[in-house]
Amino acid sequence: GTLEEIADAKRTDLDSSNNFQQIISEFNFGLGDIDLLVNLVKKLRYVLIDKCSSDLRGALKKTDMQRNTETGMHEFVVLSDPFEERAAEWEELSESLLTVLEDSAQQAREQLRK
To answer: Which of 15, 48, 59, 84 has its CB surrounded by the most CB atoms within 10 Å?
Structure first.
């Protein structure tokens, strides 16, 4: 598929915590310290998907079926894209992501010292 089709499919994986948990379950938990990576990706998902107002929560584009006045056919129209709307708040988002990365880096350093 196209990059846009692939991105839309990945939105479905991120949108649902159950779908995301399935991805996490595919990690090789036999590897040492994999929990650091698991915690990192869970925190990143939280910041990017869940930590926002309820109308922006999720990853899927909000659409509506509307009639095209030119063709008379019904088609889906994108009403909003939660990623684009959250990107408008990039300063707060950047701070949150930086905090997650710094915390995870500190945890990794502590784990290496053991």
So the answer is: 59
- Comparing 37 with 31, the larger pLDDT belongs to 37
- Residue 49, Cβ density class (10 Å: 0-12 exposed, 13-18 middle, ≥19 buried): buried
If DSSP states are collapsed to H, E and C, what string results for the chain?
Answer: CCHHHHHHHHHHHHHCHHHHHHHHHCCCCCCCCHHHHHHHHHHHHHHHHHCCCCCCCCCCCEEEEEECCCCCCEEEEEEECHHHHHHCCHHHHHHHHHHHHHHHHHHHHHHHHC
Distance between CA atoms of residues 54 and 80, nearest Å: 13
